[in-house]
TrEMBL record:
Pfam families: Cupin_2. Residues 50-106 form the Cupin type-2 domain. This is Cupin type-2 domain-containing protein. Transmembrane segments: none annotated.
Length: 350
């Protein structure tokens, strides 16, 4: 048997949400203590934290997608938000997901246990606390676009974009292999557009999908005709399987996720790539024309994303991160295929 004092657990006193600092009182997450983390079975999906509010100290009204069970162990306080009630030792507070709630310590304050059932404590991720405070709820699209800024910057440093300024890019074989990859991806992208239209059920999402298809239709053939050389389809397994991941998303994900991936990730990355490709391939007008269109195509789905529910926002943020991971993997693989049988590039670190 081993006894661990409450004081041995690391303390969190505040969280930054929506750019504002919020007082949490005292939060001590069990999983941040090595012995407790090892003792609690990971498969249980139970996350437990000690929480403390002093007399008069307030945890402002907030909400989170995960339901929570609060066990008041000692002291007293009161609840705020959707229900206002005095609570004391022995009381159990059931907080449904996305329910507005807050707490204030009274008399001597209180100690309680906060329990979640998804395997992750609410404030375990310091950079992305799983809570939103009242009065600071931005519209869903703003949340996603704020996340997206980071991914755009990271994509700008991808191997494919760096290759354009590398000396190895002067090799005509490298350029042709890159164009073969671009043509293969462009053909698959046309399939993604059609799949999205076919699988979308919401009327508003389907209209945007149709408008997008009409504007993109035949762009792959434009590239094929402008190249003036035979296209050799690329069958590299990593390249193909990454493209297939996007096909799977268009087939099986929600309308919201399809819209997010198509307009924010694929068109967002396309805008960056086509701008740089226009500089690298000035004799192929496809890249200049497509780059100009991509900026407008990014904005096509933004209004739809503003309709997302709190539960959908979480799914969309996860899909956004995964989508950028996959498109970056795709582009890095294109760079590797283009450089096949050539010297290893000496990418500039400037």
């Amino acid at each position: 048997m081993h006894i661990i004092a409450r004081s041995a657990l690391e303390t969190i006193n505040e969280a930054v949400v929506g750019g504002s600092v919020h007082n949490l009182g005292v939060v001590k997450i069990f999983s941040q203590h090595p012995q407790l983390a090892q003792f609690i079975p990971a498969a249980s999906n139970v996350a437990i934290s000690w929480v403390r509010l002093e007399c008069g100290e307030v945890l402002a009204v907030h909400k989170h997608p995960e339901p929570s069970l609060i066990l008041i162990c000692e002291g007293s306080g009161r609840t705020m938000g959707s229900a206002e009630q005095e609570v004391g030792a022995g009381d159990m507070i059931l907080v449904p997901g996305d329910s507005w709630h807050g707490f204030e310590g009274t008399r001597d304050g209180f100690w309680a246990l906060s329990i979640q059932f998804n395997g992750k404590a609410l404030y375990e991720d310091a950079e992305k606390p799983n809570a939103v405070f009242a009065g600071e709820v931005p519209n869903p699209a703003a949340v996603l676009l704020a996340d997206n800024e980071k991914y755009l910057q990271q994509f700008g440093a991808s191997n494919l974009l760096r290759l354009i300024d590398d000396p190895s890019f002067d090799d005509p074989h490298v350029r042709e292999r890159l164009l073969d990859c671009q043509q293969t991806w462009s053909d698959v992208f046309q399939d993604l557009l059609h799949l999205r239209v076919a699988m979308t059920t919401d009327t508003a999402h389907k209209q945007v999908a149709l408008d997008h298809l009409v504007e993109e239709l035949g762009h792959n053939d434009n590239l094929r005709n402008q190249r003036g050389s035979a296209h050799a389809p690329v069958t590299d397994e990593t390249f193909v399987s990454t493209m297939e991941w996007f096909r799977h998303q268009m087939l099986y994900r929600s309308d919201m996720v399809r819209t997010l991936l198509m307009h924010v990730v694929l068109e967002g990355s396309g805008e960056i790539w086509h701008r740089e490709a226009a500089r690298a391939f000035p004799a192929i007008p496809h890249f200049q024309e497509h780059g100009e269109d991509d900026g407008e195509h990014v904005s096509m789905g933004i209004d739809l994303l503003d309709r997302a529910t709190p539960a959908e926002i979480r799914e969309l943020r996860e899909a956004l991160a995964e989508g950028w991971k996959m498109i970056t993997q795709l582009c890095d693989r294109i760079a590797s295929i283009a450089l096949a049988d050539t010297a290893v590039p000496t990418y500039s670190t400037c």
